[in-house]
From TrEMBL:
Record's keyword terms, sorted: Membrane, Transmembrane, Transmembrane helix
Superkingdom to which the source organism belongs: Eukaryota
InterPro entries in UniProt: YidC/ALB3/OXA1/COX18, YidC/Oxa/ALB_C
Annotated protein name in UniProt: Membrane insertase YidC/Oxa/ALB C-terminal domain-containing protein
Family of the protein in this entry: Belongs to the OXA1/ALB3/YidC family.
Sample GO molecular function, one term: membrane insertase activity
Start and end residues of each Membrane insertase YidC/Oxa/ALB C-terminal domain: 77-264
Amino acid sequence: RTITSLDTLADGFLDLATALPIPPSWPPYSTAIILCTVLSRLVLTVPFSIWAKRRQWRAEEAVMPIMRSMAPKVARSVSEEMTRERVHGTKEQIQAIHSKRVKEILTKQRKLLFAEHRCQPAVTMLISPVTQLPIFVGLSILFSRLSQAPTPFDSESFFTLSTLTHADPTRALPIALGFITLANVESSRWFMTDTQLKREEQVQQWKEQRIARGETVLEPQKIVKSSLRLVSVGRIVVASMVPGSVVLYWVTSAAFGLVQTWMLDYWELRRKR
């Protein structure tokens, strides 16, 4: 049934490509792949990305100011409580107990505020990949199926692709895919405000101070960025081995994602200014 459904979708795509009012000088199937990629991203992924961005803004505007104003009060309250309890120990031990209690209270309050304002970070971070992955995998399988002989893809070339059924012999599109993916990772700093850059420097100094004291500091953002940089290289390798139609879809999707990221970041920059 799965193969039959794939064949039905494949036949539908071929019919769509021939029915579209594409200029005769344009390659019909390559153009249809690009158009389907753009339309699927516009309809099925952009709305969720905007929704996730609005959740992020609620967390920054509604939750974080409350947490910043609450932190000194909680610290004083915990200090008074420890004084009443007559907690004894060395200065370092008392500071450790105090920090642990303050962190537990603030963590609990932060979770409550996130739930109240419907902006839990885990959901915000997962919504975009969760909504994009099924479409990405589904269309990749569809175009891979369409590249199997016999297929009209075999008679069409595009850019450096001699045919849509074979891998790119020049590796130009796979390399472009890697660079686009890397640009999507690195461009997050391009639209940061002066306040954000200053805060990032302060956080980095705070982390260095903790490391100097012998504390272990986890940096999830750096771990994620390093992983995505490796993914950029891995995508070049994988894209060099798949059919040209799949590579064309991946490059178009990555380019759309990069432009989408730029637009959302620019929107946030203008809003903050």
